[in-house]
UniProtKB/TrEMBL annotation:
It comes from Zonotrichia albicollis. The lineage of its organism: Eukaryota, Metazoa, Chordata, Craniata, Vertebrata. Residues 9-133, 141-230 form the Ig-like domain. This is Ig-like domain-containing protein. Residues 1-30 form the signal peptide. It is a single-pass type I membrane protein.
């Protein structure tokens, strides 16, 4: 559109570029297969390459949904099912207009490459592949710690992280106080198309409280759990109460001391004054001298002078 007002050579270049872009798009589409992701037990919809116009119907078409080139999952001819794979019986449906294949519930075995082939009056209309990638969720990892040796300096523990029922085979990763950590992982599965159970083990010497994390990653999904491991045996007789007792004791001593001072301040001046009261002048001097002293002292001095 932008090319239209340009001179003929520029127009030709533009057309050439356009063709190149179209070619590249075509190649890109051929190389990049469609991928449909689905979880085991859910419903998957695999798109086909043709939509039947509303003026026609499925009766004029033959549609093959195949898996891995060899297995016919579902085939239609003249509007009727002509073939259906036993494993997919009662689990598949095809949309009669856009030919989308529905699989429900999806099984792990359904993972793989599917092809949709459409013929109209025995002439190929289109054929396209779509990959169905099936995953199953691993359970949230369960971390357990078993103390094997305990001393004042360290606690030796066997840490186990386990997760089950997932697909495909997961990788385990971990962290110890947010530092990356390896698990010694092992997997079990009944077959290569069955859910996996994964177990990770580690022996740790814990010298202080640490947080351990276990993450299970599979096909772009991840689930993880963290656990705080406490250093159990600290070998200090009464660990926490000691400073508390010291504080309490200090407070009692301070209060006793303040009481003693107060009592002394209350009774001592009387003794002192009763001795010096004989001379009025000296008392007046004493009052003058202590005008800067705290009120309580002044009051006691005045009352004693009466
Ligand atoms: C096909 O049609 C169904 C409804 O009939 C719709 O849900 C689905 O999204 C359509 N798929 C495509 C690829 O157009
Ligand atoms: C088709 O299935 C066979 C065995 O079932 C397997 O060896 C082969 O790799 C599969 N091909 C594709 C393209 O998935
Ligand atoms: C499919 O459903 C029909 C009728 O409900 C049943 O007779 C048949 O055994 C089912 N097939 C499978 C493979 O489950
Ligand atoms: C699922 O199928 C795809 C496509 O055929 C294949 O690349 C992938 O390896 C399969 N996954 C598993 C776990 O077999
Ligand atoms: C974690 O594993 C322990 C021991 O195997 C078990 O007793 C506990 O119930 C499990 N916890 C969860 C949440 O699965
Ligand atoms: C470690 O923790 C700090 C803060 O708690 C965070 O900012 C940092 O990203 C963490 N590092 C790793 C490797 O997880
Ligand atoms: C991992 O476990 C295997 C088998 O239990 C054992 O032989 C191996 O020594 C362990 N590796 C580490 C690093 O703990
Ligand atoms: C995986 O773990 C689950 C639950 O703990 C258990 O029922 C199942 O038998 C295990 N599968 C295998 C293959 O060990
Ligand atoms: C843990 O520490 C104890 C001594 O405190 C030592 O005997 C043991 O080998 C250590 N274990 C590991 C896995 O470092």
């Amino acid at each position: 559109m932008m090319c239209l007002p340009a001179s003929p050579p520029a127009l030709r270049m533009c057309l050439g570029l356009g063709l190149l872009v179209l070619l590249c798009l075509g190649i890109g589409q051929a190389l990049e297969k469609k991928v449909v992701r689905s979880k085991a037990g859910e419903k998957a919809s695999l798109p086909c390459c043709h939509e039947i116009p509303s003026s026609e119907s499925l009766h004029k078409y033959r549609v093959y949904w195949q898996k891995n080139v060899t297995d016919v999952v579902l085939a239609y001819s003249e509007g009727k099912v002509i073939s259906q794979h036993e494993r997919y019986q009662n689990r598949t449906e095809m949309d009669p207009w856009n030919l989308t294949l529905w699989i429900s519930p999806v099984e792990i075995l359904d993972n793989g490459s599917y092809q949709c082939v459409v013929q109209r009056n025995s002439v190929l209309v289109c054929s396209e592949s779509v990959i169905l990638s099936v995953t199953a969720d691993f359970s949230k990892p369960n971390i357990t710690a078993e103390v094997t040796a305990d001393s004042c300096e360290s606690t030796e523990m066997v840490i186990t992280c386990s997760s089950h029922g997932g697909f495909p085979k997961a990788t385990l990763s971990g962290a110890l106080n947010n530092m990356s950590m390896e698990w010694n992982a092992s997997w079990v599965s009944e077959s290569s198309f069955s859910p996996y159970n994964v177990t990770g083990k580690r022996v740790l010497n814990v010298t202080k409280d640490v947080t351990i994390t276990c993450s299970v990653e599979y096909s772009g999904f991840a689930t993880s759990t963290s656990l705080l491991l406490k250093k159990t045996n600290n070998c200090v007789v009464p660990p926490a109460p000691l400073p508390y007792n010291v504080i309490t004791a200090s407070i009692i001593i301070v209060i006793t001391f303040i009481l003693a001072i107060t009592l002394a301040a209350r009774y001592l001046p009387r003794h002192v004054c009763s001795r010096c009261c004989n001379h009025q002048d000296s008392v007046e001097e004493g009052v003058k001298e202590h005008t800067k002293a705290p009120m309580s002292y002044k009051v006691t001095a005045e009352t004693s002078s009466v």
